[in-house]
Design brief:
Blueprint lengths: L13 E12 L2 E12 L3 E5 L6 H9 L6 E6 L2 E2 L10 E5 L10 H11 L4 H14 L15 H13 L5 E5 L7 H18 L2 E6 L2 H7 L2 E6 L2 E6 L1 H6 L4 H6 L4 E11 L2 E5 L7 E4 L9 E6 L5 E3 L9 E11 L3 E8 L2 E8 L15 E5 L6 E3 L2
Helix pairs in contact: 2-3, 2-4
Length: 373
Amino acid sequence: MNDGGQTTHAEAAYAIELQNVSKYYGEVCALDNVSLQIKRGEFFCLLGPSGCGKTTTLNIVGGFIPLSRGEVYIDGKRVTDDPPYRRNVNTVFQNYALFPHMTVAENIAFGLRMKKVPRAEIARRVEDMLKLISMEWAGGRRAKQLSGGQQQRVALVRALVNRPAVLLLDEPLGALDLKLRKQLQVELLNIQRKVGITFIHVTHDQEEAMSMSDRIAVMAEGRVVQVGAPAEIYYHPRNRFVADFIGESNFFVGKTVECSGNQTAIAIPGFERPVRVRCDQPLPAGQEVTVMVRPERIAVSLNEPTAAENVGKGVLTKASFMGMYTQLNVELGDTLTKIFSPNQSDAGNDWVSKVGQTIFLSWNTRDGNLLLG
């Protein structure tokens, strides 16, 4: 037993552990048997569309709503039945939630005063927090005198000053404009690295999750669909939902021809020869499957490549200059394929003048992903 009388979990290697957590509102299932293990010092992101259960998961970790079934551990301690004030976590919300009648320094110090921390210690820690966000000048100002970005920085360090084991972030950048949001993404990640506290970040913004997280849990319909590092989620999605939700994808539907070793050959319209894809399990011939390839992984040429893998032939229907790359739309059989072709000069690759022509596309076997679900 620990000092609080709660059972200490045998495995204390994680900052947060959810075991088979479910949440029902009447007959409506908001969370369906969710299990997660979040490491100490990790920047972990809960990502998914509206209504997928990510905010519900965050609220259960914080103790703001009761769960229907399952267990919650924080730093190895079972906190399933503990109220929020007994959990060593703090939360940053999208709406800042600062006290407008207080100064910035008073806002940051509020939690410390409630804990009756000595005055000198409060002053020192508030000063440290202001330095952390490079706002030493703002201590005496009212919160309402600050910009939205500045208020969010203050809200962040007000939550950090209590030194929680875990910081919960509920779409904290959602109310900011695009340029400021991107700037604060960088700042937020730098602050997390400096303080070393576990951050759990809720967002529906795929780019935000990919650029900031150590690992991502993609959620859909109250379930965790896939957990992994951003590159793993992006290049090796577990199913079509993940592949379609994260970034741009091309989906080619075909039928298996044969399996050999860790590869399978798939007949796809628009390809004269079967496409080869990595496969970890034997599949029967004739099974319908989907192959996913990212647009930037597909090479294009006007002449048929002789040494390339997985070569298809189609008609270029549109070419749009996008700066670093030209986006090509290619009709390949019954499939409209999207390709990001890198631009090598100020004029791009002059694909615009090639619209209407037959072109060839290809990709390496390692860049194709077999999706069964």
